[in-house]
Design a protein that fits this description.
With 89 residues, the chain is mostly helical. The protein is 85% helix and 0% strand.
């Protein structure tokens, strides 16, 4: 279950960077986009490499943690944005 906890933390970081990436894409900041994408790749590697080396049996749970936080978090952010009047209707 250590891999799952690492996946949850990584997923939260990925979700944060994803929200920053969408704002930068809409603004058209090329250098900022490149930096955020590089940060997302580093965060993903920083989560998966230690799990793959130390907790091989938890590797699938790490992926489940990352993807579940991304999916549920994106859904929650979308619902909150719609209620706040900032999202598309």
């Amino acid at each position: 279950m250590t891999g799952f906890l690492i996946g949850l933390v990584c997923g939260a970081g990925e979700l944060f960077l994803l929200t920053r990436l969408t704002k930068s894409l809409q603004a058209g900041d090329s250098l900022k986009i490149l930096g955020i994408v590089f940060g997302k790749v580093l965060l993903f590697a920083a989560a998966l490499v230690p799990v793959a080396l130390l907790f091989q049996r938890d590797l699938i749970w790490c992926g489940v943690g990352i993807s579940s936080v991304l999916v549920v978090g994106a859904f929650v952010i979308n619902v909150l944005m719609r209620r706040g009047g900032k999202g598309d209707r």
